[in-house]
Amino acid sequence: MTARHDTVAETVKRIVLDEARCPAAVADVPDDEPLDGGLLKVSSMALLGILTRLEDEFGDAVPDDVFAGRSLKSVQDLIDLVTAPEAP
Questions:
Q1: Distance CA 71, CA 56 (A)
Q2: What is the model's pTM?
């Protein structure tokens, strides 16, 4: 993994934990953790909050076409969304 990937992954996990109101530590969240699994319970409203905060954190809106054909079911899916070539 690159330093950028590690930074993005940590930021995504921090935001997900905050929006899910989960007390776990960032280090305890594996990249493949489901958004609605044993550790995280991300509601649809929390997912909207996550996406908004990711756009704010990374400084630009994520283009709509980045969402085409994507399913956001895990932390890794969010990391991939932010690191996609089309993303900010």
A1: 21
A2: 0.86
